[in-house]
Design goal:
Number of strands: 0
Distance between the termini: 14 Å
Oligomer: single chain
CATH topology: Death Domain, Fas
Number of helices: 6
Radius of gyration: 12 Å
Shape: globular
CATH architecture: Orthogonal Bundle
CATH superfamily: Death Domain, Fas
Helix content: 55-70%
Structural class: mainly alpha
CATH class: Mainly Alpha
Number of domains: 1
């Protein structure tokens, strides 16, 4: 598992993550009390890419604990994508 701050390559994550994975990531972050119900709402965001940007933005504002939680959730929800991005995740 990863630790440290989120240093995923934004453009690659945004290009490759699917909308169902984004929703599962939000569920995991809510379960782990990293985010609150209001932060789960992506209703006004139309594109998948903008939703991915919003999820990353919310988590980055939570600091290293939030970033670590997102990375751990990504490993659970989409192991294939997390392995592809793993060499580019930098622990701090």
């Amino acid at each position: 598992m990863f630790s440290g701050t989120l240093r995923l390559p934004w453009s690659e994550f945004i290009d490759r993550v699917s909308e169902p994975v984004l929703m599962k990531l939000l569920d995991k972050l809510l379960e782990r009390r990293v985010i609150i119900d209001d932060e789960m709402d992506l209703g006004g965001v139309r594109s998948r890419a903008d939703k991915a940007r919003q999820v990353i933005g919310v988590v980055r504002r939570k600091g290293s604990q939030g970033s670590s939680a997102l990375i751990a959730a990504l490993c659970e929800v989409d192991p294939c994508l997390s392995r592809e991005l793993q060499p580019q995740v930098q622990a701090v």
